[in-house]
Amino acid sequence: MDTIASFFSFITTPVSWVIVQFHTVYGAIFGPDTGWAWGLSIVSLVVLIRICLIPLFVKQIKATRAMQTLQPEMKKIQERYKNDKQRQSEEMMKLYKESGTNPLSSCLPILAQSPFFFALYHVLNGIASGKTIGVINDSLLESARKAHIFGAPLAAKFKDSADTLHALGATVTDVRVVTAIMIILMSASQFYTQRQLMTKNVDTSVKTPFMQQQKMLMYVFPIMFAVFGINFPVGVLVYWLTTNVWTMGQQMYVIRNNPTPGSKAQAAYLERLTGHVTHHGKVRSRGARVIVKAIVAKGRERNEAERKFINSLTKAGLTAQADGNVVKSDSQAVAQAEDGTPTTAAGAPRRQQPKRQSKSQRQSGTKQPHEGEPTDEPSAPSTSLTKSEEPQDTAPAPPKQTPKPGSGTRSKAQSGQRKGGQRPKSPSKK
Q1: CA-based max dimension of the chain
Q2: Where on the phi/psi map is residue 124: left (φ > 0), alpha (ψ -120 to 50), or beta?
Q3: Closest C-alpha to 208, from 334, 384, 69
Q4: What is the pLDDT of residues 9-53, one digit of tens each?
Q5: How many CA atoms lie within 13 A of 333 on its CB side?
Q6: Which is more confidently placed, 238 or 219?
Q7: Tens digit of each residue's pLDDT (9 = 90 or more) over 132-182
């Protein structure tokens, strides 16, 4: 461990300088030799480092979103090579290379803060051994050795002997109780953060090697913290516990406001967004508009939660636009009547379809008026005759006229129609 810490010694001076600056501020409030002054200095160092790592965190989110866009392709590869795991892994790596994504990009924040972690460990180890390091001089070294956090010295370790702890002004019981509680909290926060990511913010419809790695890390990291935690000074435990709490809060914010498509977190987010949009009639936040825009662009590729969101908007008379905004649907748009009364398109009178004419009406050329339409033409006489009304003497039908040769028009006889009105049929005899 000393070899690794020495490798990162180039950053020891900046880290010690930052701690001393924060100690100057908190020492003026709580006293320079108190554990509050030194403990809050370490906490402030964590907050400063994590703020500086926000650009890397944004890059991590973008890389994660890029991985999510590859989910359909990953699913196809899994189905195509489901019996050949080696070929499946090769095709996955080829897909990562072609798309420019890296499944290990989620480890960037951890890798970036590793130098600061080892530098802080080197500083606190120097305090425990009574050696000045960085900008920490003899007076600051003596002040840090006197500082206790809940009865445990800043440089004390879980495995330190009773003589070493007595020299630091503490007992074995106090140090081991405090360090054990901090190790448990540190491991539990790490496990909860990883479990929250796996259970709420992962698309379970597609299983990738990356998901298996994350699931393995969910159990490996807490065990690693528990094993190595007994060799960490109390100051390093404060540092690592603070950064775990920061990561947990940061992860909760991302899961709530920018969930992974197809995850349980997205279903909960879209349910909240549906209530908000139907209440206000629009999408207010920029992040929500980006999510709605992505859902609209998917079309038929939407998952169940996204289809439910679109259907809920439709039932509320709203339509999601391609730019992420939400407007009122045309079928529910309010129209202004002539008398000034607002009416909806759904309440407008339906268009009446004309009644179908009978065969005799079509042949006689009589037009059937629409419902409510006045007509000046007399109604066509009924063609149905009873047996008593049938005329006894009927005139012989006129002879057919032969069309002139060379005529360009067909006669009615050739077209199958009779000249004049159609002769009524005799009623069937019972």
Answers
A1: 142
A2: alpha
A3: 69
A4: 678 888 889 999 999 999 999 998 889 999 999 999 999 988 988
A5: 8
A6: 238
A7: 888 888 889 888 888 898 889 988 889 888 888 888 888 999 999 999 999
Q: Which amino acid is at 326?
A: V
Three-state DSSP state, 261: coil
State the residue for tokens 């999408």: 283
Q: Under a CB-based contact definition with an 8 Å cutoff, are residues 214 and 197 in contact?
A: yes
Using a CB cutoff of 8 Å and minimum separation of 24, what contacts does 416-423 make?
417/363, 421/364, 422/360, 422/363, 422/364, 422/383
Neighbour tally for 97: CB within 10 Å: 10
What are the DSSP E strand ranges found in 196-331? Answer: 318-320, 326-328
Place of tokens 């320079």: 32
> Among 141, 121, 66, 62, which Cα is nearest to 97's?
66
Neighbours of 259 (CB within 10 A): 22
pLDDT tens per residue across span 32-43: 888 999 999 999
In the chain the first and final C-alpha atoms are separated, in Å, by 116
Contacts of 387 (CB under 8 A, 6+ apart): 427
Contact 330, 345 (CB under 8 A): yes
The answer to whether the pTM exceeds 0.70 is no
Name the one residue in this structure whose structure tokens are 């009446």.
Answer: 352
Beta bridge mates, 342: 336
392-427 as b/e: b if 16+ CB within 10 A: eeeeeeeeeeeeeeeeeeeeeeeeeeeeeeeeeeee
Burial class (CB in 10 A: 0-12, 13-18, 19+), 315: exposed
Identify the pLDDT of residue 1.
Answer: 47
Element (H, E) at 148: strand 148-149
Rounded CA gap, 282 and 274, in Å? 10
Q: Dihedrals φ, ψ of 169, to 5°?
A: 80, 35
